[in-house]
Amino acid sequence: MTVATDYLAQLPLSLTFLVIAAVWILIALVMIWIGNRLVPVDVRSLSAGGVLNVLAIVASFYGFLVGFVVVQEWGNVNSAKSQVS
To answer: What whole-number distance in Å separates Cα of residue 22 and Cα of residue 28?
Structure first.
């Protein structure tokens, strides 16, 4: 694991972001492909509305969590700045 993190640490920040985004997109595409292969078409058409609702709820919770972490870290940075100065 340290080999991967050391490699990413040596890349520029924007390139690191693109590599991580590409990996997550690849994971999503593989999961979509697996879902299309394993779940029959009639089951997908019947359960699409429920799945969309569940995904919306999960995305809302995730957005709230990310927002909370960003606000908390911003407060920590401002606290550290005031202590240093």
So the answer is: 10
Helix/strand/coil percent split, the chain, to 5: 95, 0, 5
What pTM does this model have?
0.56
- Cα 75–chain centre separation: 23
Digitized pLDDT (tens) for each residue of the chain, 85 residues in all: 577 778 777 888 888 889 889 999 999 999 989 988 998 888 878 888 888 899 899 999 999 999 999 888 888 888 887 777 6
Backbone φ and ψ of 9, nearest 5°: -70, -25
The amino acid occupying position 71 is V
* Pair 8, 19: CB distance under 8 Å: yes
Work out the number of other CB atoms within 10 angstroms of the CB of residue 16: 14
